[in-house]
C-alpha cells in the first residue's frame, strides 16, 4: 500500500507513523505542536517540521527527522526557497499557555464525565 508522488511521500503509512513519533517528541522537548495530517499532505510543511526537529538538538528527534526526510520525494521547484520562507514566517509563533491548556481540555472533559 504505497502512495507515490501525490502527497510527496513514498509511503503514507510509514511517514504518518514517523510524523506521530516526531509530534510526541517535539511536544515533550520543545513544547511545539505540529499537525501530523497536514505534514503527510504538504511537502513544504514536512520540510519545515524536519528543519524544526533538527534544530531542537535532540538525538531522537534528529534520528526521526532523518527517517522522515528519506521518505520524501523531492520535486524541484523554482520558487521553493520563497515558499519555505513564507512557511517559516507563518509557523514562527510560540505556543502560549492558553493554547496548551485548550489542546488538553478534551482529555480532561472525558475524564470529568466519569
TrEMBL record:
This is Uncharacterized protein. It comes from Acinetobacter terrae.
Amino acid at each position: 500500500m504505497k502512495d507515490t508522488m501525490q502527497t510527496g511521500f513514498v509511503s503514507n503509512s510509514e511517514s504518518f507513523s514517523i510524523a506521530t513519533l516526531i509530534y510526541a517528541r517535539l511536544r515533550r522537548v520543545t513544547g511545539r505542536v505540529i499537525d501530523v495530517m497536514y505534514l503527510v499532505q504538504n511537502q513544504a510543511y514536512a520540510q519545515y517540521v524536519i528543519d524544526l526537529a533538527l534544530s531542537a538538538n535532540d538525538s531522537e528527534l534528529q534520528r526521526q527527522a532523518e527517517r522522515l526526510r528519506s521518505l520524501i520525494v523531492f520535486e524541484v521547484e523554482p520558487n521553493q526557497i520563497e515558499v519555505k520562507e513564507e512557511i517559516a514566517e507563518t509557523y514562527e509563533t510560540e505556543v502560549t499557555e492558553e493554547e496548551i491548556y485548550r489542546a488538553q481540555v478534551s482529555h480532561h472533559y472525558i475524564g470529568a464525565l466519569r
